[in-house]
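tool_call: predict_structure(chain=1)
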Amino acid sequence: MRERIFKRRIRVGLWVLVLCMLSGTVYLSVAAAEKAGAKGMSPLAAKMPGGEESGHILVDVSASGEEELVSSAGPTADLSLEGIGPLQAESPFTLKEEVLLEEVKPGSESPLSVESATKDGAEPDPEALSGDEEVRLEEESPSWNRHVVAAGDTLSGISGKYQIDAALIVKANALKHPDRLSVGQELLVPKSPEDVNAVLEELERRKLEAEEKRRQAEPVAFTDYAVKQGDSLWSIASAFGLDINTLFGCNDLKDPDVLKPGTSMRIPNQDGVLYKIKKGDSLKKIAERYGVHPEAVLAANGLGKDAALQEGQSVFLPGAKPITVVREGGSGASIAGSGGRVTARGFAWPVRGRVSSPFGWRRDPFTKRRDFHTGIDVRAPRGQTIVASKNGTVVFAGWMGGYGRVVVLNHGGGYTTIYAHCNSLLVKKGQSVSQGKAIARVGASGRATGTHLHFEVRVNNSPINPMRVLR
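tool_result:
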């Protein structure tokens, strides 16, 4: 009897224990459901598809995350997750970021790192993607040092500066006259004898790139401009950012020094010359004469490759300058088309220095094509004083396209002088100056490769060789 009572009590006790355990389980489940938006989440099985174990678990409990679940599961899907409870968009405990529940094992890829790094379209952070190894992106260092020749530079001095044999510099840059370096000339100095070929390859690449640019040109477009009171060729060229020679090359100006108000002028959208086709002309001959590329002429004028040029037809030659034929004679210079020989005396040197680029045809330092240089370049240090070559009046002082800062003096009798690429100007338009008066300072403004003065002498606005009138 006692044994029967004892067994009954054991069974009752076991049932009570089971009931208590069930009650506790229900209670914990309800509590977990209420706090599923922030904390108290039950651990989830860390199993990936395929049975592989994952080093961490990510749970997106934000409002956007709920929307994604609804979108992927369908509008009637049950959003409750076993052990977590329903997602509550309006919960005050909603997190705005992902929650990392377990630490990522070293060496394994972290979805958190990738997802955070690419958030909002940003590039992944190399450090965030790295495991045991660090990712570093380094720019490849060139095999040469870039050197721009300055006043007073010599090949031996450059060789000593970079501690490289001068013969290697000559070979790498294919210098034909190493004893005659020009101010502004660019040299690629190899870092070692093994880098000479790399420099030669780079120069060849640049040459091909420049040649390709020569073949290209924007379609030409003209604007009709009515001359206003007080206008001059210099001020108009400055206003449109063009070379003064472009205005001469695109307009038939009988007296350029006197522009009557109301006179109509054609203003192109780029520097160049309008050329009228003559009998016997061909595109190749014209291009060679003016130092331009035939393909650039076709592109600027919207012509096809096989287009035939007709006598009397006008074509625009992009980047070209009007050709001035100079015949030397006596103590002065004769200008073709000026009505005879024009002789001048008494022009003083505007600055002391060596002539680095003479008047006439030359290889343009920028485009590397054959170009007519309408003045002389005098090498001088930055800031050196520039003086008036002769008594005159300032007709322009300001910025003018590729000329940079410019002073133009009118000396009467059809003579004008131009002082270009200045660093600063010391006179103003309308001011009278005497020979030897300071008018500007040497610089490299505008289209210049180094500090120098570009000096022109013009007769009736046709450039002449300054060396024939300077004393």
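agent: The radius of gyration is 41 Å. Proceeding to next step.
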